[in-house]
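Input chain follows. Return structure tokens only.
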Amino acid sequence: MRSTEWARAAREYLVPKLPGAWGHRNALLYQQPIDWLLCYVVMQTRPGSRSFQMSADIQLLCEPAEYLIADLSLDKRATQLGRFRDLPEDLVLAEPVMAEIAGAISGEVVPFFARFGDLPTYAIAAELHAWTSNGLNCHFHERLFYSRLLLGDFPAALAAAEVAERTGRSDDREWAHDLADRVAAIATAARRDQAEAVALLKAQAAWSRTKLRLPLAGDRRGSPPY
């Protein structure tokens, strides 16, 4: 099953039934408007299979990324959303399947996003992830740094930045050193001026939006084409 095939069924039978405003592209659905956090649902399948399942996740966009990252996820093992379903080959027969998914999104995903899809709650979750990783995952500390910085909690933000940079530089991989350089530059800017640091985060978020083919900040034209 191609993602565009699923997308046609979703556009016809799923998106109109969802509460609130949603954007959609291929296998991706996302709540609108998008701010610092991307709250999204994505379809997952295997080549040649008509079976698929859905996952719901939250991603901090100012962590530069060319792909979707599940910073926070709804446990699909305990939800109707994560149940495997088959997409009929006849688009007309897909309506009941999409109606099931719409019900799962309304009943499970929307409350999950309402609870965790804001910066204060995200920062708490990022801190839990950072410290339960034994301080070894520089990505977790980078997310904690950015979220605390955006909330104006400078002592906590700079403490997280120090750990993110240190753990990044202790890793031999190039991407980890790039992360350390990025964090160091933003921490230095934050010590000079909060607005300068936030501007750097906005630029990183705009880069992620472009790579993920999401609307840019302030763009009200709706979803990109399939």
